[in-house]
Amino acid sequence: MERTITATKILHINRPFKLDCGETLPALDIAYELYGTPSPDNVILIEHALSGDAHAAFYHSGDEKPGWWDGMIGPGKAFDTDRYCIVCSNVLGGCKGTTGPASINPATGKPYGLDFPPVSIRDMVDVQRTLLTHLGIERLKCVAGGSMGGMQTMQFFCDYSRMCSSFICIASALKHSAQQIAFNEVGRRAIMADPRWNEGSYYGQVSPEAGLSVARMIGHITYMSENLMQEKFGRSRKDRHTANIFRPTFEIEHYLDYQGIAFVKRFDANSYLYITNAIDNFDLITSISSTGRTRGQGRGRGDIHDMRPKKGLVITFTSDWLYPPSQGLEIVKFFNALNVQTSYTQINTDHGHDAFLTDISAQTEIIKGFLAS
């Protein structure tokens, strides 16, 4: 089968961009990919999770693996590129083309590091709105995403309700619980405890690979269910004889090592700190409840008191203990109270939180039906 080749594009915004924290970025780069030709009723905005990027589908030239949600995006797939135009961008604070802590600070000529201002989920969707404006897109058929992508989905749908017809939120939450914050904090501490982190000033030197690797290991444990981990690895050993008793011997230890090593080759440690901080501070109810409206009416945002005839879809997974089904039901309750006709589906699977990336066939049937209705 012939591969479809795509490439990430960079949009340069040469004007100040104000953030939720009150600080301003002097300029902005936005990395994005677009699949298909936009029309008034066919555009779907895809939001990526913590470790994702703009490359959601198809292949980059020379790559062996396709984009991170290729099983869901393409001709005949859940997000059918024969029917819809798909847009996906790298989030603000990321490290795959959009401005983040590894970007050059115009004031110093060096990478921002910890001089990069704090960013929020709302800032991320504001950047996406800027991109859509540049592309001439003023209406969305749907905005969709899983995990952190689900948080962006909900924030975008609320902040820019006038341009969105529907949303699809998968394996996410209205806000983090104490346990969810705790897992992210341990990951951040692992990075900051690495001597090579150097208070965020490691660019041009060896990065804090050990700390970032451990952070990824911690995260990956939360992405898998106990049943899947037991079935896949159990207590199987790979190396039984070693001079150092603390070297990895169990298969699960080697697997986590592999995940950690692979991650540090493609991700920036400071971006991990900034993005997980944005996730932990996300609270959709608080962000829109102070006035009963989404902020900035003059910037095209709509009133959230009555969103009829808009609709939403929430998908959860039975074995997802990172974002359990109970949090998905809270999302449904919240949006139904806003008069958004929100449906709910719980998929039975042993794949844990990663099911939003792996359980393609079950999601495809549900999403196709939702988009066609």
Oligomer category: single chain
Largest sheet: 8 strands, mixed
Remind me, CATH topology of the largest domain?
Answer: Rossmann fold
| Sheet with the most strands: spatial strand order | 2-5-10-6-13-14-15-16
Question: What proportion of the residues form beta strands (DSSP E)?
Answer: 15-25%
Calculate the mean pLDDT score and round it: 93
Count of domain modules: 2
* Percentage of residues assigned to helices: 25-40%
> From N to C, what is the helix and strand string?
EEEEEEEEEEEEHEHEHHHHHHEHEHH
Counting DSSP H or I runs of 4 or more residues, the number of helices is 11
Taking the alpha carbons of the first and last residues, their distance comes to 31 Å
Total strands: the figure is 16
- Which stretches of 5+ consecutive residues score pLDDT under 50? 291-301
CATH superfamily of the largest domain: Alpha/Beta hydrolase fold, catalytic domain
CATH architecture of the largest domain, by name, is 3-Layer(aba) Sandwich
Structural class: alpha/beta
Task: Kindly provide the name of the CATH class of the largest domain.
Answer: Alpha Beta
User: What would you report as the Rg, rounded to the nearest angstrom?
Assistant: 20 Å
Q: Sum up the overall morphology in one term.
A: globular
Structural write-up:
- With 373 residues, the protein is of the alpha/beta class.
- It has two domains: 261 residues, 3-Layer(aba) Sandwich (Rossmann fold), CATH 3.40.50.1820; 94 residues, Rna Polymerase Sigma Factor, Chain: A, CATH 1.10.1740.110.
- The protein is built from eleven helices and 16 strands.
- The chain has an eight-stranded mixed β-sheet, with helices on both faces. The chain has a two-stranded parallel sheet with strand order 1-7. A two-stranded antiparallel ribbon has the order 3-4.
- A hairpin with a 4-residue loop joins β11 and β12.
- α1 packs across α2, α3 runs antiparallel to α7 and α4 packs across α6.
- The two termini are 31 Å apart.
